[in-house]
Amino acid sequence: MAECKKGTHGECAKKCASHELTIHDDVKDYYGKRVKKTSDLKTNACVAPAKPIPAFIRKALADVHPDVTDKYYGCGLVVPDCLEGCRVLDLGSGSGRDVYMLSKLVGEKGHVTGVDMTEEQLEVARKYIEHHTQKFGFSKPNVDFIQGYIEGLEEAGLKENSFDIIISNCVVNLSPDKTRVLKEAFRVLKDGGELYFSDIYSNCRLPEEITSHKILWGECFGGALCWEDLVRLAEEVGFCSPRLVTAKTVSVGNEELERVIGDYKFVSATYRLFKIPKNAVKKSCRLTYDGNITGAEKALEFDCHYTFKVNEVVEVDGEVARILKSSRFAEEFTFQPDAQTGPCCAAGKVCPVNPFELAEQVKSGDTPSATGGCCGAKQSCG
Ligand SMILES: C[S@@+](CC[C@H](N)C(=O)[O-])C[C@H]1O[C@@H](n2cnc3c(N)ncnc32)[C@H](O)[C@@H]1O
Predict the structure, then answer these.
(1) What is the pLDDT of residue 340?
(2) Bigger pLDDT: 20 vs 190
(3) Which residue, of 228, 274, 296, 313, has the fewest CB within 10 Å?
(4) pLDDT in tens, 154-169
(5) Whose CA is nearest to atom 3 of ligand 1?
(6) Which of 26, 117, 215 to probe ligand 1 with, by most ligand atoms within 8 A of CB?
(7) Are 246 and 269 contacting, i.e. CB atoms less than 8 angstroms apart?
(8) Does 116 sit in the ligand 1 pocket, CB within 6 Å?
């Protein structure tokens, strides 16, 4: 099996527009005509989230119309904290489950836009706008659904620096050009914004017999990025090092398709990719979480390394410090000046966490290895 190596991942979609069109048409056909409800999926890609769903999110989900939830094809829970009043974009919003759940969580002053290329999915999503507006007690809708490609948000009319948060649930793997998707997401995000998304990743680059298999692609396995390629692509596009939130291994669960998959492994992982101003200083610091975010009154789970308990002083590395100081979280923390630099050097590169290892730890109930993740001079992150 080919391991991911820096700079060797060539996406043929860049060279071949007809390949891109074919994939778009195949995926539209899959989600528009072949699959009508969650139970029609042929594999386990649409897995339950790795961790229990908090009560306030369960409540928001319970308010979503069953015709919408029947067509849910996601692979994770895409609910970042601190959502009230935010402008959110959902890439590949499907029938709209996550859009409506977030519509309630951002509140009447916030807004959620869903983008999807498949007419049949959009039709279901749009049909229930009025229903949810009334259910949530809003005076006017705070959602809209746009038909378009996630590789072409500009053509879909989405302006640069216009969203606080982008979410996506099991969609980026379906794109023939992941680089363009990330570039477009970066463009439309405001400074300090983040792409918070769940997707399927492989342990290695996949061979052509898997990537050219139409059902495996439609089921979110064939187009899965090797997780190390996601880390590299995100940084190339300009995001901070991806922060891994959670991960869960995914089995295919279909004998015929498993024969094609062979020994390749897959994980459903949730990452957060922050767009931070270029001049943001990278310096470790001590901080305390103030406990004012709805749903995170006792502790704020930032990623698999950092959970901030209310009023507890924590020293964070330079990367996390600049993310928190430059994002919507800045007002939620008290930052202490002049922290001594601890063992976690400010300039050190943050080693990406292997989601397959995290998935094992989560499964066995282990707490993921403590804060940190700074590579010393001898350690390689590549
Ligand atoms: C696996 S489903 C997930 C839908 C939704 N996020 C959910 O959780 O139910 C994938 C969705 O992404 C859409 N999609 C896939 N590739 C796309 C692309 N390149 N541009 C726009 N939409 C896309 C499909 O039409 C489909 O609705």
Answers:
(1) 55
(2) 190
(3) 313
(4) 999 999 999 999 999 9
(5) 73
(6) 117
(7) yes
(8) yes
Spatial contact of 324 and 214, defined as CB atoms under 8 Å apart: no
92 lines ligand 1 (CB under 6 A): yes
Residue 377 sits at the vertex; the CA angle it makes with 375 and 379, to the nearest 5 degrees, is 50
Kindly report the number of other CB atoms within 10 A of residue 20's CB atom.
20
Q: Which pairing describes strands 225-226 and 189-202: parallel, antiparallel, or unpaired?
A: parallel
Cα first-last separation, the chain = 17
Specify whether the CB–CB gap between 347 and 317 falls below 8 A.
no
Q: Is 41 in the pocket of ligand 1 (CB under 6 A)?
A: no
**Which has more pLDDT, 147 or 375?**
147
pLDDT (tens digit per residue) in 315-360: 999 999 999 999 999 999 999 975 555 544 444 456 789 999 999 9
Tell whether the torsion through CA atoms of 1, 229, 316 and 299 is positive or negative: negative
Going from the Cα of 78 to the center of ligand 1, the distance in angstroms, rounded, reads: 14
Parallel, antiparallel, or unpaired for β 314-316 and 285-289? antiparallel
Distance from C-alpha of 370 to C-alpha of 305, rounded to nearest angstrom: 6
| d(CA 234, ligand 1 centre) in Å | 20
Q: What is the dihedral of CA 156, 148, 115, 133, to 10 degrees?
A: 80
Instruction: Output the CA 73–ligand 1 centroid distance in Å.
Output: 8
Q: How many Å apart are CA 102 and CA 82, to the nearest integer?
A: 11
Position 8 pLDDT exceeds 60: no
Concatenate the DSSP letters of all residues of 157-188 into one string.
Answer: TPPTT-EEEEEEES-GGG-S-HHHHHHHHHHH
All structural domains of the chain? 12-274 (3.40.50.150), 285-364 (3.40.5.100)
Does ligand 1 lie within 6 Å of residue 223's CB atom?
A: no
Answer whether residue 379 shows pLDDT above 70: no
Can you tell me the mean pLDDT for 89-113?
A: 98
Compute, in angstroms, the gap from residue 24 CA to the centroid of ligand 1. Answer: 10
